[in-house]
Amino acid sequence: MDKHEGKLEKILSAVAEGSLPPSEAADELKKGEVRYLDSFAALDTGRGSRKGVPEILYAAGKTPAQTAKICAAMLEASERRVIVSGASDETEAAIRETLGSVPIRRRGRAIVAGFGEPSLSGGRIAALGAGTSDMPVLEEAIAVASEMGAEIKSFHDVGVAGIHRLAAPLEEMDGFDPDCLIVAAGMEGALPTVISALVGVPVIGLPTSTGYGLGGDGTAAILGMLQTCSPGLSVVNVDNGVGAGATAALIASRAAERGAAKNRTSK
Q1: Domain with CATH 3.40.50.1970 in the chain
Q2: Which of 125, 134, 200, 206 is most exposed by smallest CB count within 10 Å?
Q3: Do the beta carbons of residue 220 and residue 211 sit within 8 Å?
Q4: Distance from C-alpha of 6 to C-alpha of 253, rounded to nearest angstrom
Q5: What is the DSSP pairing of strand 203-207 with strand 151-155?
Q6: Percent of the chain with pLDDT over 90
Q7: Domain 124-256: which CATH number of 3.40.50.1970, 3.40.190.10, 1.10.443.10, 3.90.1150.10
Q8: Measured between alpha carbons, how far is 88 from 242 in angstroms, rounded to an integer?
Q9: Which of 2, 32, 33, 26 is nearest to 12 (CA)?
Q10: How far apart are CA 149 and CA 253, in angstroms?
């Protein structure tokens, strides 16, 4: 448990016991949530305990030096790991140089820097990618969901061009019993619709900018997913692994909480 999770637990316990009024609890939770860094960043260090989704650093548009400095400040402020989305090789090099001995792991388009592992929420997510070209975006989604405590089982290169490849993953998923699925696909984006028609849990479609010619920038994939005839499929924007991972983890975490509460009341 990191210091923000510990602080939240103490405050909620005090409110439950009646020793801390809710209004004072709200004021306490707001303290120290924003940290200003020079003139280019205002870090929301309380987002994880407030919302359940940590602040994720979007590297595109920032210089490698700015990104590395923000990473260092976030780690110093919260003593947790930090996720960097869309990090280039130059940005990764700057982060490694700035953070020194801090462990850094590359997950597709994402970088996770920091010590230790996240606490498991009990939620389970299955992540499927249509092709190898979709892996960088899907791996970013997996990185975010993993940092939010979800257990992930992933399957790659199971697209509709060889639909028979889905048989084994579907059988394995039946035993894994996921709370929701993330399905990434480029080209015409058909895979999420196919899978949504075969499973009884929410599916998050993750269109990727892979494909040929007109529509190959992800336009065909996202439009195909949005026009799905299979109920239960929701869609994030093109290459938005962060959004897919965060949404899936929130669904899985709430499902795990409800399951645990049901088990407690049935005893």
Answers
A1: 124-256
A2: 200
A3: yes
A4: 18
A5: unpaired
A6: 62
A7: 3.40.50.1970
A8: 16
A9: 26
A10: 8
Q: What is the mean pLDDT of residues 94-117?
A: 91
Answer whether residue 195 shows pLDDT above 80: yes
Q: Which residues pair with 106 in a beta bridge?
A: 111
Alpha-carbon gap, residue 193 to 204, rounded angstroms: 10
Tokens of 178: 């996921």
pTM above 0.85?
A: no
Q: Please name the amino acid found at residue 200.
A: G
Residues in the chain: 267
| pLDDT confidence tier of residue 196, bands split at 50, 70 and 90 | very high
Four-residue CA torsion sign, 67, 71, 74, 77: negative
Distance of CA 66 to the CA centre of its chain: 23
C-alpha 99: how far from its chain's center?
Answer: 23
Quote the Cα angle for 51-128-179, to 5°.
45
The pLDDT of residue 4 is above 50: no
